[in-house]
Amino acid sequence: MKKLIRWIALLLLLAVFHGVSRGQSSQYTISGFVKEKGSLEPLLGVNIYIPELKTGGVSNVYGFYSLTLPAGDSLTLIFSYVGYQALEYRVPMTEDLELQVELEPNKEMQEVVVEAKKQETVTEQAQMSKVTIPVKAIKDIPALFGEKDALKVIQLMPGVQSGGEGQSGLYVRGGGPDQNLIILDDAVVYNAYHVFGFFSLFNGDAIRSIELTKGGFPARYGGRLSSVLDINMKEGNKQKLSGEAGVGLISSRFTLEGPIQKGKSSFLVSGRRTYIDILAQPLIASQGARGGYFFYDMTAKVNFDLNKYNRLYVSAYLGRDKFYYKEKIDDFETNAALYWGNVTSTVRWNHVFNKKTFSNASFIFSQYNLNIGLEDKSAGETFTLNFNSGIRDYSLKYDIDYLPNIRHSIKTGVISTFHTFTPNAVVIKESSGSFNYDDKEQYQTVESGIYIQDDYRVTSRWRILAGLRISHFVAEDKQIARPEPRFSSSYMIGKRTSVKASYAEMNQYIHLLSNTGVGLPTDLWVPATKRVKPQRSRQVAAGISHDIKKPELTVSFETYYKRSFDIIAYREGASFLAIDDPFSGKQVSWEDNITAGNGESYGFEFLIEKKKGKFTGWVGYTLAWVWLKFPDLNNGNRYHPKYDRRHDISVVGIYELNEHITLAATWVYGTGNAISLPLGQYNQHGLPDVNNQNSLISSAYFYGEKNTFRMAAYHRFDVSVQFHKKKKWFDRTWEVSVYNLYNRKNPFFYYVAYENTKNVLKQATLFPLIPSISYSIKF
Amino acid sequence: MKTKLTLFILLASIFVSCEKDANIPVPVIEKMMAVTAFLEEGKNITLTLENVVPVFANPRQESGPVTGATVLISDGVTSEVLQEDAQIIGTYYSTNMGFVKAGGAYTLKITHPDYPTLTASCVVPTYLPDDAELDYVSSPNPTGETDSLRRAGLRWQDKSVEKNYYRFAANSYMTGNQISALFFADKNLADESKDGEMLFSGLAEMGGNFSGVPNQSLEIEFELIALDISSYKYMRTLDISYYSEDNPFAEPVIMYSNVKGGIGIFGGIKRKTYTFDVY
User: Fold this and answer.
1) DSSP labels, B35-93
2) Of A681, A683, A758, the CB nearest to B58
3) Closest-CA distance of chain A to residue B148, Å
4) Which residue in chain A is spatially nearest to B269 when comparing CA positions?
5) Which end of chain A is more exposed for a tag (fewer CB within 10 A), N or C?
6) What number is the ipTM of this complex?
């Protein structure tokens, strides 16, 4: 381990020295920002290719790029990006140059005509196990109730699985939903789901980019074991007022963006609210009670170009889910509510130090809360109960991009987060004063990281992305510092094929306690403590990627092996309801309820993808195994977790029939979840009493080994058709979609029921065939 | 909390659209027996035998005691055949009180014409300390009443080098009359990370209402039980199973078993009682 770190550090130093020494010869730097023509939205990941040198670069998340090239007469720069028309510049290499580039989006149906070699493809990138989801695909792919959902589109990629029917939770390469770092404009989002995971928080209208990394993690990311989902919100149109709005079966949404000062600053606001509660109100009210459920989310962002070298961004997200129930019968009154949600806000300052150096400083706030409230009034007495749990973060982050020459792209930075965890805060009161209970459990910790990484083009065929992150955690006067080496490399074989390999070590200092696996808001975030170690993982991956010229396809195959250590799970029989029992004196802490163990996962992922043309889509297949071994679970024997899925297939197709009609379909198949079913029933006994008499305890189920049964396989076919039309003031789209077209009764859970003299196994199904219709406009 | 749980489940069930028979093969098991026996020096051996019925049998079968089994326990040199209790069905016993020795290793073999043969083995623990210490705390209760919240715990010396497993229970008595049992957060303790140290049961609250009770004599009686590792694991899962049976969110409890050819526990224990006069 120490040797590996030394090698990586040495490699980084040599690489930088090598590049800088080469950079001493006469070179000039071309730098600037790449933006979308019209809106001036910065474009990240734009490829810049220099045919004469057979090399290039890429714009960063703020659209900044810098290329330091050898002096000469002139060179050709080709800027290309999927969904945009490529631009070609001939630039003199006689002096440094600032070149601001604006790419124009493709018009409907127009194919991008750029020679494949002019663009950097996935095949050529050093980083592997990365998935970029086109925002347009999110809007085109059919969805449950017509609610477009970024996380569910990501679930259609190989190596990523859903937890179950309708769930947005991500299970990446054998990791749980808690092991995904979900970042929205630099802010960590702790619960990314509405309605028990059926819908994600992210309103597609406000999203600029989504990128999922499953392995070979760049050193700039840390804090989770299994994946990084980096989501960036749109900046807002700097030229004109524009927007989108939509009405669906269960929710409506709007997005408005426009300039504050034309060309210099802009704003964006976006919101969504469901109206299930309003529609259901007449039914519930007729039964003498009021109740319902709704969720809403709002996103807002402003940004200012302070001057040529400084930009300021302020963004915020607010989302809430709420169940409520009120009932009044005579003098008995009940008010109950369950509500949860996230609040995030980020202030970012971009500064361009010089043509080669770009920096970003962020101040980030993030909070997730769950509240359960109950008030009973009866005969002048009032009983109130309030349960609260949550996590609150304040973070400072500073990143520098340094591009000394065309061979190196160096990123370095530091982040520090102050966490406040409240796993349990319970207040119970009776107005008579006969009973009062007030208990609060709170932890404060500091999590930090410092990193350096270099994307090094060793030769025109060989690239290395190497880095080192040092993570640091302080909790309960205990400090932990751990090095996390990261390495990935690609080597081109011929013009269109590359082989890749990666290694990454990750540490996770916070844990999610979840014993349902369905993304309930009751899942608790807790820190590593003296008793509960941080989780850590090591992952190796290797793969081969090949670009096919006609039709333009990318085929990739990856295999991975991951070991996870000190991961946690609820003990058998434990659950989130861990409060001290004031009557029995039974003292319960979340630390008493959990146990630690190790995990192992391995698998193969295959993806064939078509990103351009009238027909786009992909086919993904994953063959995977996940094992867990906990000394305190399953009698210490290893077992498959519920979400172990041997086969997972996704087929996605989007076809733009003409400029008025878009057709889309998805088909998914997955091996059934691993579950425990009772095999037998018997009477169990405990220790004999002092008189040596055996005591009958209770009737019990005999389960055998944990999770040895499989639920029925999951599969589903969804279709949608969109009708687009240009109106005078706006473009409108009608969408008709059908979720689960062949009405597959996929099991959500099983239970034992007694019927006609025998026990039978029953299954509950959530979503049968569900048609939906929505209407949206864009102006 | 159960009110909230119910509310929560009701709300969640809004989304359950339909139910039907599961179209997967239901689990099938062969007939088997469940055994419970804890060997203790100086005590009769008492063993219970229950049948394990398939959950999905058609028609449904009821679980119950197993009679007619041949139960053989051996210490490697001599063997005891347990007699079937005519009064308590499914219970087998030995009257040879000298057969079980602390530190002895024993094997179990149960044969029955209708069930697979069941075998198991155990070692009877040897160590319990001669003395132990009492921790007693009284404090105001949440409503401010003085001396009405009373807690007690036991401290004892663990024996070093060997792995020891304990279980404890306690009762409090006032003026000779039993008041109540003490409730421990966890009744089981292993010395895995505290070998040879002083161990502590944790403070357990005394049940009962002390309001207005005048100061009388208070006696606390602790029972400390040394367990072999199998008994320790079995009792832990049994406790968890007991505490979680009403919790719909709880994970299924896989009961520990050290028995081949069936399920259950064949373990060894040693117990001792420590009595303290508080005042």
Assistant:
1) EEEEEETTS-EEEEEEEEEETT-SS-----B--S-EEEEE-SS-EEEPEEPSSSTTEEE
2) A758
3) 13
4) A687
5) N
6) 0.84
